[in-house]
């Protein structure tokens, strides 16, 4: 069931997908504007059709800057504000409004349109919704299809079969398999510049191994494992956590080890951590 309270899929906030969304929306808008001719674009300039195409393209692409700025803000704040689906939809509606407002101001004060401003705004917002909501929907479906395809390939991958049997695999930054450890032996991962320290048990003794990679990339690769991101610098094996305690400075995860070891939980990842433990 479609739940508006769920967080939006992570793939919507990936830099590459945001760029694809902007480029596809801009291309669709150019075609739509010059074929359908909303906003009275066909009477903006008394010029040839090809010159009109050039002029209108400049205006449309300027309007698309609203989306560019909006998506940059969304990307930069993704760690601070984890949007739920209903919040994302409100954000999109805001993009539609402000893009429509831009065209209204242009048409009213640059082209000196005689239509009453509120009426002109309503028309512009309606046309803008047609321009961007369709490519938004298409790209969301496309990104979802790519993500589901990737997950299916992971299931078919022999390495993932081993993961199901209790092995967790670690690839370097080039995607080359470098290290595998039993899930019940893995303790936690710690970021160190461009490297990761993999902490695990060897004959009951904590040891560590260095791997050239980063937590963001590993987080995407370890989605089907008990490993969860709890901090900017840490990922933890949830099965190794014996206690979650709240201190004045936030949540801490106490690990099930002979020596006392606790890892911090930053506010950014509290929901992720609690979701994992709610399922166990």
Summarize the structure.
The chain has seven helices and ten strands. It has 280 residues and is an alpha+beta fold.
Question: Any overview of this molecule?
Answer:
The protein is α+β, with helices and mostly antiparallel strands and 280 residues long. The protein folds into two domains: 147 residues, no CATH class; 112 residues, LytTr DNA-binding domain (OB fold (Dihydrolipoamide Acetyltransferase, E2P)). It is 50% helix and 21% strand. The strands form three sheets. A five-stranded antiparallel β-sheet has the order 5-4-3-7-6. Strands 8-9-10 form a three-stranded antiparallel β-sheet, with no helix packed on it. A hairpin with a 2-residue loop joins strand 8 and strand 9. Helix 1 packs across helix 4, helix 2 runs antiparallel to helix 3 and helix 3 packs antiparallel against helix 4. The longest helix is centred in the middle third of the chain and has 40 residues. It is elongated.
Low-confidence stretches: none
Shape: elongated
How are strands sequenced across the largest beta sheet? Answer: 5-4-3-7-6
**Strand coverage percent:** 15-25%
Helix-strand category: alpha+beta
Query: How many domains comprise the coordinates?
Result: 2
For the termini, the CA-CA separation is 22 Å
Q: Return the string of H and E elements.
A: HHHHHEEEEEHEEEEEH
How many E-type strands?
Answer: 10
Helix content: 40-55%
Whole-number mean pLDDT: 82
Largest sheet: 5 strands, antiparallel
Helical element count? 7
Rg, rounded, reads: 25 Å
């Amino acid at each position: 069931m479609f739940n508006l309270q769920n967080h939006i899929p992570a793939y919507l906030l990936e830099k590459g997908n945001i760029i694809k969304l902007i480029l596809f929306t801009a291309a669709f808008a150019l075609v739509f504007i010059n074929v359908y001719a909303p906003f009275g674009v066909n009477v903006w300039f008394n010029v040839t059709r090809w010159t009109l195409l050039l002029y209108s393209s400049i205006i449309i692409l300027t309007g698309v800057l609203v989306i560019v700025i909006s998506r940059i803000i969304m990307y930069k704040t993704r760690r601070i504000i984890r949007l739920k689906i209903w919040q994302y939809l409100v954000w999109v509606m805001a993009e539609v409004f402000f893009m429509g407002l831009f065209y209204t101001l242009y048409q009213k004060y640059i082209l000196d349109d005689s239509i009453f401003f509120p009426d002109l705004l309503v028309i512009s917002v309606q046309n803008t919704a047609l321009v961007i909501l369709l490519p938004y929907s298409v790209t969301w479906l496309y990104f979802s299809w790519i993500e589901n395809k990737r997950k299916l390939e992971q299931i078919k991958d022999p390495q993932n079969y081993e993961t199901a049997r209790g092995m967790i695999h670690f690839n370097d930054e080039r995607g080359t398999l470098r290290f595998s450890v039993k899930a019940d032996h893995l303790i936690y991962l710690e970021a160190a510049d461009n490297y990761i320290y993999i902490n695990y048990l060897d004959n009951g003794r904590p040891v560590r191994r260095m791997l050239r990679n980063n937590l963001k990339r590993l987080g995407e690769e370890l989605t089907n494992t008990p490993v969860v991101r709890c901090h900017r610098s840490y990922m933890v094996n949830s099965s190794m956590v014996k206690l979650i305690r709240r201190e004045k400075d936030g949540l801490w995860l106490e690990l099930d080890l002979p020596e006392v070891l606790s890892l911090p939980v930053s506010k950014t990842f509290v929901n992720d951590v609690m979701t994992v433990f709610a399922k166990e």
